Amino acid sequence: MPSMVQNGSRNTAQSRKKKPVLKFSNQPRSAADVIARREIIKRQRESLPIASVKERLVQEVKNHDILIIVGETGSGKTTQLPQFLYNAGFCPDGKVIGITQPRRVAAVTVAKRVAEECGVELGQKVGYSIRFDDNTSSSTRIKYMTDGLLLREALLDPYLSRYSVIIVDEAHERTVHTDVLLGLLKNVQRARVKSVNDHAIVNNKKASNSITNENGKGAECTTFLKQCQRKFPPLKLIIMSASLDARLFSEYFGGARAVHVEGRQHHVDVFYTLHAETDYVDAALITIFQIHLEEGPGDILVFLTGQEEIEGVERLVQEQLLKLPEERQKLLTVPIFSSLPSEKQMRAFMPAPAGYRKVILATNIAETSVTIPGIKFVIDPGFVKARSYDPVKGMESLIIIPTSKAQALQRSGRAGREGPGKCFRLYPESEFEKLEDSTKPEIKRCNLSNVILQLKALGIDDIIGFDFLEKPSRAAIQKSLEQLFLLGALTDDCKLSDPVGHQMARLPLDPIYSKALILASQFNCLEEMLIAVSMLSVESIFYNPREKSAEAKTAKKCFASPDGDHLTLINVYRAADELLQKRRMELGTEKNEKYIKGKNEKIVRKWCKENFINSRSLKHACDIHRLFTPFVPPFFLFSLSQIRGHVEQMGLPISSCGDDTLQFRRCLAASFFLNAALKQPEGTYRALASGQVVQIHPTSVLHQSKLECVIFDELVQTNQKYIRNTTRIDYLWLTELAPHYYAMQDLAKFVAVLSSGCGLGRGVGGHEECSFYCQASQKAKV
Ligand code: CDP
Ligand code: MG
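That is the input. Now the predicted structure with cytidine-5'-diphosphate docked in place:
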């Protein structure tokens, strides 16, 4: 690696220049432009490595029902293979080719690109479907979707009968949904073959009874078999990745055929540092400037671990820039992370103004499948923020860990999408060799309750015996089963309970949220709970940029409820809704719907900006809830993932508790009872189920409040153990509303304390909780 530029002292810049703005041209393209772009795309497609093996690949799919395809990033797998198969007649009788992606952003951007390549409108022949956003129609034949979504579709259609081909893409990411999907698809394939045989046998019998002529009988049988095969054609299953342990997958599928697509579109030179870097952020900063000052044109993509780090680097880049001569200052930073509003995310995909170099500061959101135009250089410090769930503590941790080799390859691949590129890994080559080959499968580090609920709904009762690619730990399965049992989703013999378990499985939500909705109809607050759950199901609603942190906090205060975050979120939703109602009245009935919708979208965006609300998250929440219609596209009305529709169909009465928020909070206590925390004398809280000492997260409106008892949405460990999204409750409600848990627990804790000879240690079974349980039940008796 060339020597790094010296890192000068970082004086705070006094005068900041206004950043040049990246703008999309909204002008319709001229006919000549459109033709020229088509020509470019055509040539690009023809030059992809996969183009030269098109016929062979199609033949492989024809010959094998399961195929594993491994090919370099950028070889054209994701965008081209579905088109090859479509053109080769793999969509008979309106059947669909489904391609799963682990990330929403990949499913959406790839679908857009393929629709453009096919010259069709998105949502017609080519579409995408992700949770709460379905952009497909009856004419869709190539459908990109998240792996989680396909799993849910299997609940409604266990044979996945709409699909002729399913491509599980980026399988190396090993999301929990991909892993479960693979097991399920194996079953679907077997079930389809069995159905064909069963149908053929039945029809064959009918044929022999009704037809006497021998020749006629043979012809009839063939016709029946053909009809059966048309109804249940074998499902073609393709597992695909750039960096896949082909052997593991092949063995899992009984020695399935694996093919390699040779060659990459463009070469990427990889550089390593000579020595280990003590501060990777510093090293990234130095490398950014080194590229900027020494390399030719091309944008830079830097992988960082989270919003805070990205904003920190952004600030440092601005400061360093001011120390350069004016003509060398043409470097533009563009952040991209998942909680960033989508308009801002899209800036990463826009070209830099003439003469400027763009440096994109990204989390691993930009790691797989996406193509960011202009990127020639990738800087990879080799770290990622990973989620990991501890089933015993019921706690999720977010910790920074080294990437796997597979991730490093994906990252460097982003530099060679449009031309040759360079990747700077900020660690020595010897370190690369020490990295894990692939990322630890999510199934081994996540809460399994949701997946188990879905498997149960699919009739798979023996979870421990399920054919997982890699089995999760027994303890994790048991803990999740226990949680589902406590929520009333499972019966004593571990079957899905009726109706609660079935209702919960039907909702595309975390089981606790589903339970909250079901209970809310009894507490007369389903209207409010629908809003709260919708708002909790999306990325952060509040947007808090570092440079305007004080303004953002003031804006948030306008919505804050003294009772907590759930009611605060409802206040935001209602304020936006009110704004729209008012506008609707002002616009009257003269204007057409399209006009009103367009105007409303603009107004909401402006309002969001002024109030530091993430408009994309609010839009998602609205789509989920569907009360608030300006954003909702018509096809969404038929989306399988829309929760208001589900609860209506379940016959749950939707009513509002109005100003009586007590009912709403009691309902939260009744459903989130596993997530309750009690204040301790020194000011911290103790999560009752696990005994963890926690603090209310600084983003909560209850941060620094002195409330006795709260419920929370999640327990996360970053630098501290935090509970997020909290609401005030009365602890006596716990024994009243969840006696099956708190009474049981009470007893268990007493036994633990007594048997320890009054050791009264801290942690689970420690004396603080015991005194609480004792006190709570005594009060409850009074
Ligand atoms: O899946 P794989 O990494 O093999 O490649 P792909 O996603 O099919 O992309 C193949 C090529 O299409 C990329 O190298 C880009 O040149 C182009 N592409 C693009 O320009 N814009 C997109 N949104 C997706 C792909
Ligand atoms: Mg791909």
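Residues 44, 48, 71, 73-80, 109-110, 113, 242, 265, 371, 417-418 surround cytidine-5'-diphosphate (ligand 1) (CB under 6 Å).
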